[in-house]
Amino acid sequence: MRKMYDKITSPKIMARRTGMTHDDMLYKAEGYVTAWFMWQLQGDAEAAKAFTGDNPEIMQNNLYQDQKIDIIF
Questions:
Q1: 36 near 42, Cβ under 8 Å?
Q2: Is the distance from CB of 36 to CB of 51 less than 8 angstroms?
Q3: CA 7 centroid distance within chain
Q4: Residue 65 pairs with which residues in a beta bridge?
Q5: What pLDDT tens digit does each residue of the chain (73 aa) get?
Q6: Which of 57, 64, 67, 71: disulfide with 50, CB 3.0–4.6 Å?
Q7: Which residues of 60-69 are buried (b: 16+ CB within 10 A; e: fewer)?
């Protein structure tokens, strides 16, 4: 997972839902996938807070592990 993440050259985030398989993640990603697209495609500043700022929500979410964010503005 980390090797693939390191190869991505665009803005990115990595997070793994604790106790989930890859297939489970399709149905358990919560609102983060929606928030990412709302931010990236619609410029939604509220949705961006899940991934940006001094204290991004996803970095504090105990349901996730291995969180990493590389977003360049």
A1: no
A2: yes
A3: 16
A4: 16
A5: 889 999 999 889 998 889 888 788 777 767 898 999 999 999 999 999 999 999 999 999 999 999 999 986 5
A6: 57
A7: ebeebeeeee
